[in-house]
Design brief:
By secondary structure, this protein is mostly helical. It has helices spanning about 5-20, 25-35, 35-40, 40-55, 60-85, 95-120, 125-140, 140-170, 175-205. Helices cover about 85% and strands about 0% of the residues.
């Protein structure tokens, strides 16, 4: 194996690992924190947002464990999209379409995260204003559609990425194992989609 191919081999594995750890774990934790809205609406969600913003050292965790890995995963992922040869329209097998959708959702998820982070983390600092801004977006049909598309893209990218991670790291070996694990990972996507749908609906119902 040439040095260039060897470098690409390791970078792709790091890329897949970073997509699951820590980005994937952060996404699940983010959902759990947002799920406090199910407890007592605005009051419990405001407490959760305040906790996230006032925890000592949170900025270092956000930069070191989230922002830097996310930037690497996004930048290299967009490079993969650029060099990939999509053949879904020629060979209509499920995995070919999944490969194609993984590249599309990579772009959609990147756009969604950039706007989401800028709007709710960088442009707004007061916890109450964060919630009011988010609720305002979710109560507007246009921005609600943007959030639904962005969210579905993100959870599909995670679910399908989980399957490619299992292949990349040699966990899913053989046709039978890959078929079973692909179904499990698709169910992960469906579960996250339903969970997120409930979150978006509940957040949109918050009143002030």
């Amino acid at each position: 194996m040439s040095s260039a191919k060897k470098s690409s081999f390791y970078i792709r594995r790091i890329h897949s690992l970073v997509g699951l750890l820590p980005i994937g774990i952060f996404m699940i934790v983010h959902f759990l924190i947002n799920s406090t809205v199910f407890i007592n609406g605005n009051e419990s969600y405001l407490a959760a947002v305040n906790f996230m913003k006032t925890t000592p050292g949170v900025i270092f965790l956000e930069v070191g464990l989230i922002a830097i890995p996310l930037l690497f995963h996004a930048i290299y992922g967009l490079y993969v999209v650029y060099v990939a040869h999509n053949n879904a329209l020629q060979y209509k097998y499920y995995r070919n379409w999944a490969f194609y959708l993984q590249r599309i959702t990579a772009i959609l998820t990147t756009i969604f995260i950039v706007i989401h982070v800028w709007t709710l983390r960088l442009a707004v600092h007061d916890s109450q204003m964060v919630i009011q801004t988010l609720v305002g977006w979710l109560q507007n049909p246009v921005t609600l559609a943007f959030y639904i598309i962005g969210y579905l893209a993100a959870v599909y990218h995670f679910g399908n990425g989980l399957f490619t991670f299992l292949i990349t790291w040699g966990v899913a070996k053989g046709d039978r194992a890959q078929k079973v694990l692909s179904i499990i990972c698709f169910c992960v996507f469906l579960a996250l989609a339903v969970w997120g749908g409930g979150l978006l609906y509940s957040l949109a119902q918050i009143t002030f």
